[in-house]
């Protein structure tokens, strides 16, 4: 169970007269919605032919649910209308924490520690952390590079974790890690229910975003290569596609 209060998915009801409505529980209120106006959505399922209303109500339910798990304030219409799509950091800050605690922590570790989600994050135990939680140590057999790896843990990650028995997994609370498809399935369910994701956003997007943040703040491709544990700097450069990366500095140019 998530440590955060869950948000119930809207229920769809078709009345005897053919009109459809959503039954929504949100912010301590029970609401019946026949359109999306309350959530700043220009969706009106009952304006469609009667045989299309249920499918349109499903679209409305998905969009309303996305806004609810984003914690939207119904009294703030500007914020409601601004949540049409979110980048990776906004997904972390506004949505995942209230949707699924394990998926949120996985994405936080993928972004903040640049760990790969499907094995390196999934198999983490409390014994992989230093006593003060400031670093994570992974053996070469447990990461893609094949080399021992020591990763700094940012303060915003440390604030979200509470150490337990060293041999226990972070996500299951026992000796066994989640199944190999655990986070893939959790992300897939989130994608199906959320209308806030951009095209192509995946769990690995958080790692890419973290990599770009390191480069923007340090300007060092070598530091990026080290943080990502890449064997070849050309691999690191692929993470920077779309950025204006200066390969030469003025002092590198020919002199007279």
Structure description:
The chain is mainly alpha-helical and 256 residues long. The protein folds into two domains: 11-81, no CATH class; 88-197, hpI Integrase, Chain A. 38% of the residues lie in helices and 9% in strands. The protein is built from ten helices and five strands, in the order E-E-E-H-H-H-H-H-E-E-H-H-H-H-H. The strands form two sheets. Strands 1-2-3 form a three-stranded antiparallel β-sheet, with helices on one face. Strands 4-5 form a two-stranded antiparallel ribbon. Helix 3 (88-99) packs antiparallel against helix 4 (101-112). It is elongated, with a radius of gyration of 22 Å. Residues 1-5 and 78-84 have low confidence and may be disordered.
Short description:
The chain has 256 residues and is mainly alpha-helical. The protein contains ten helices and five strands; from the N terminus they run βββαααααββααααα.
For this entry, give a set of tags.
2 domains, single chain, disordered N terminus, 10 helices, three-stranded antiparallel sheet, 9% strand, 256 residues
């Amino acid at each position: 169970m998530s440590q955060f209060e869950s948000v119930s998915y809207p229920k769809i009801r078709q009345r005897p007269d053919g009109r459809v409505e959503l039954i929504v529980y949100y912010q301590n209120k029970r609401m019946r919605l026949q359109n999306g106006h309350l959530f700043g959505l220009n969706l009106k399922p009952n304006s469609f032919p009667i045989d299309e209303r249920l499918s349109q109500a499903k679209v409305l339910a998905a969009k309303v649910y996305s806004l609810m798990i984003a914690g939207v304030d119904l009294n703030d219409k500007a914020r409601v209308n601004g949540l049409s799509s979110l980048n990776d950091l906004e997904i972390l800050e506004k949505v995942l924490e209230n949707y699924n605690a394990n998926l949120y922590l996985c994405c936080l570790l993928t972004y903040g520690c640049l760990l790969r989600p499907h094995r390196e994050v999934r198999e983490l135990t409390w014994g992989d952390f230093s006593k003060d939680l400031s670093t994570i140590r992974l053996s070469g057999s447990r990461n893609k590079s094949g080399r021992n790896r020591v990763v700094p843990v940012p303060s915003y990650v440390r604030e979200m974790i509470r150490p337990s028995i060293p041999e226990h997994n972070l996500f299951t609370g026992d000796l066994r890690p989640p199944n190999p498809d655990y986070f893939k399935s959790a992300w897939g369910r989130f994608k199906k229910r959320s209308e806030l994701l951009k095209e192509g956003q995946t769990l690995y997007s958080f790692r890419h975003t973290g990599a770009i943040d390191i480069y923007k703040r340090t300007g060092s491709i070598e530091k990026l290569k080290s943080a990502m544990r890449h064997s070849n700097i050309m691999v690191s450069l692929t993470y920077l596609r779309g950025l204006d990366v200066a390969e030469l500095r003025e002092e590198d140019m020919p002199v007279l």
